[in-house]
Description:
alpha+beta; six-stranded antiparallel beta sheet
Amino acid sequence: MPATKEEIAAFIAREFPQTKCTVLEAGNAGATVAHEVGPAELRPGGTVSGPVLMATADVALYVAILAEIGIVPLTVTTSLNINFLRKPEASARVVGVCKLIKLGRSLAVGEVSLYSEGRSDVVAHAVGTYSIPSKAR
């Protein structure tokens, strides 16, 4: 049974209180999340760190999948490949827009375009695969 944006946001807030990602949209085989950026997320040179971009992509994939299959906590990342394309804005949230490419019984594959909020240039592109527990589908 699919999960709503509100259900997913509540689940993430409860189970992942350390995340700085917020759920903006979820459903229709996709999701949009945003990650706050502050001094702790920057690396020397004033750019957003790679781990922040990777975390945003990972959360966007997770949200997109949960929106389709429901809250299944043990749905886990099996691979994540990211290409860093240009320097993100240090003063803007990172926005991850995910589109699921395949949603099968045991695996889901999706792609995420990452942006600096308010900009149209993609700063990074990720493709990830998640494993779905057998009892979930």
